[in-house]
Amino acid sequence: MSASAENTHAFQAEVKQLLHLMIHSLYSNKEIFLRELISNAADACDKLRFEAIRSPELLADDPDLAISITLDAEKRRIVIEDNGIGMNREEVIENLGTIARSGTREFLSSLSGDEKKDAALIGQFGVGFYSAFIVAEQVEVDSHRAGEDSAVLWRSAGDGEYTLDAGQRTQRGTTITLHLREDDAEFVQDYRVRGLVKKYSDHISVPVKLIGEGENGEVTVDTVNQSSALWRRSKSDITQEQYDEFYTYVSHDSDKPLAHSHNRVEGKTEYTSLLYVPSRRTFDLWDRDKARGVKLFVKRVFIMDDAQAMLPNYLRFVRGVIDADDLPLNVSREILQSDRTVETIRAGSTKKVLGMLNMLAEDNEKYATFWAAFGAVLKEGVIEDHGNAEAIARLLRFSSTANDGDEQSVALSAYVERQKDKDAPIYFLVADSMAAGRRSPHIEGLLADGHEVLLLTEPVDEWLAAHLTEFEGKPLKNAAHVDSKTAENEDGDDAVDEQYRDVSARIASLLKDKVSDVRVSKRLVNSASCLVSPEGELGEHVKQMLRDAGHDVPPEQKILEINPTHPLVIRLANLDDKDRFSSWSLMLYEQAVLAAGGALETPTEFLARVNEAILAGA
Ligand code: ADP
Ligand code: MG
Predict the structure, then answer these.
(1) For the chain, N or C: smaller number of CB within 10 Å?
(2) Chain centroid offset of residue 1 CA
(3) CA of residue 320 to ligand 2 center, whole Å
């Protein structure tokens, strides 16, 4: 095997990094190489079947798609062969010399350099073709692209470069030969490989055949897997392990999923869906433009990965398969976007996923895992999917003043159930952080009155707050918005109100370019002042996003509330010195800005005012 310089190629730097990491850190789970190679062979068969819809001649000369495995104990060799789509020279370079899947690239860039930590990470990751080098010191790939007339031979020892030569295959498909390391000879044993195929590849819809030798030296062929599409089998014939293994196949995630939902839908539109909730985020969860979604099959023929149209965007974390009976085999992404059948399937699948989450919510621990990973994505559903807003609202979980920790674990139904004042709304506050929320002046009065307040701290929460206005007939009330209690008609101590209404008016005229009004507060207990928004006002993040998108958003119309029981406000009311009155009014405003987590325009002036007040008091 001599390679001349001109057919020697260097791996992309990331590939080298991945190979190094894999060879040195996956030794405890070596067997997964077989899963990866069989899954690639199955994908190649799926792709061929798909291309053959348009070009039947591709399939004609060799119509029975299959994967075969031949073991050679003497030479310590495994050969995995498929008659799928195959690759030509360019495709081999692209697919086996670089890293195509963006998730893998992002995964690599997230590595810490700490081998132990990185090894734990990569163990959870769908590692793909390069995993062959975990067990092989030399790998050969002989591939023949369907419809073309020559083969290409790719060879590498996984050490930084590979060679390309003319291949041997005369028919379409790929032959992968692994020359095993001495320590990995176990993988040429028939029983070992048979066990692995059963374990990892039973759900693969093409037959996986083990080629062996009979007692008299004759060739034996034994199909090891069930080789029927898993989702088409009946639920009672599928074990949890098989469901989990199929999840790994469709998701490239080797952690177990949190839940699955397997359904056969009959009627006007017929389809089968097998959908999973992963237990952790993918790297591209926040990239809304990224193609993602479930695998689409039509009558068992693979059509595409990442069929986004089959589920709404806010369920983009769901993985799995949808196999539709009533779509044409030649559907394109464009057709999917506006197809009536797809709409029906999307609506049905959305209900199934929400139902699955509802079931999952009965297990607090699992649901907490789900919520931590995908809660913020699910919240988008309240905004995007009005039809299911109620069902989604039931799935939401919040942090709350009733709990000590920061974890989001309170359901709206739990809030309502333990509410003491049944006529009160559901109170919530959007804050920059939990610490700021808990100490916010806005909720001092509510807490003093024994109300529970839900605390929302994620960027999406302002949107959520604007859309989630009631839950099962009960209104939700933003604690930072104008309180009806503050309104002028509220009964209370008239004399006090009278006096402070006058003070408020004086402050309002001083601060007229900063706030739209100044009012006497009924919500404040410890703080001297706070800023509130008019009912229905959008949050700052939302406004900024709208402005960024070119919308004309009117400036903030904040209202300053002052606490008539606070010593500072009482002193202010009795100040004769006009300058000092003006200075203290500004200070009340600035304190309210700071308490809301805002930044002051002129912090040094604020400090000067505070210092002056301290010294005046001293
Ligand atoms: P993934 O399967 O996630 O795309 P892999 O590293 O497993 O990543 O494989 C990389 C690519 O190599 C595949 O996407 C495919 O295009 C190509 N490939 C691998 N094995 C085969 C095969 N047996 N037949 C045809 N193409 C293959
Ligand atoms: Mg693969």
Answers:
(1) C
(2) 47
(3) 16
How many C-alpha atoms does 581 have within 13 Å on its Cβ side? 15
Q: Whose CA is nearest to atom 3 of ligand 1?
A: 128
Determine whether 493 is exposed, middle or buried from the number of CB atoms within 10 Å of its CB (0-12, 13-18, 19+).
exposed
> Tokens 């195959």 — which residue?
86
State pTM to two decimals.
Answer: 0.81
Q: Name the residue among 326, 321, 327 with its Cα closest to residue 231.
A: 321
Three-state SS at 578: helix
Condensed to tens digits (0 to 9), the pLDDT of residues 35-73 reads: 889 999 999 999 999 999 999 999 988 999 999 999 999
- H helical segments located in 385-534: 389-395, 412-418, 434-438, 444-448, 461-467, 494-510
Atom of ligand 1 nearest to the CA of 85: 25
pLDDT for 219-235, tens place per residue? 999 999 988 899 999 99
Residues within 6 Å of ligand 1 by CB: 36, 40-41, 43-44, 82, 84-87, 95-96, 100-101, 128-129, 174
Going by C-alpha positions, the residue among 197, 179, 91 that lies closest to residue 139 is 179
Please state, in angstroms and rounded to a whole number, the distance separating the CA atoms of residues 274 and 264.
9
Closest CA to 469 of 478, 460, 480, 461: 478
Measured by CA distance, the residue closest to atom 23 of ligand 1 is: 41
Report the distance separating Cα 35 and Cα 37, nearest Å: 6
Helices 578-595 and 603-617: crossing angle in degrees, nearest 10, is 120
- Smallest CA-to-CA distance from 19 within 114, 140, 131, 100 is with 131
Among 235, 379, 261, CA closest to 320: 261
Length of the chain: 618
Pair type for strands 426-430 and 517-520: unpaired
Nearby residues of 543 by Cβ (< 8 Å), 6 or more positions away: 553, 556
269: left (phi over 0), alpha (psi -120 to 50) or beta: beta
Cβ within 8 Å of residue 393, ≥6 positions away: 382, 412, 468, 471
Q: Sorting pLDDT into bands at 50, 70 and 90, what band is 34?
A: very high
Starting from the CA of residue 100, give the closest ligand. Answer: 1
- Distance (Å) from CA 233 to ligand 2 centroid: 24
Q: Which residue has the higher pLDDT, 65 or 112?
A: 65
Q: Which residues have CB under 8 Å from 4's CB, separation 6+? A: none
DSSP-assigned letter for residue 521: -
CB 45 within 8 A of CB 174: no
Q: What is the DSSP string of 381-394?
A: HHHH-GGGHHHHHH
Is residue 483 over pLDDT 50? yes
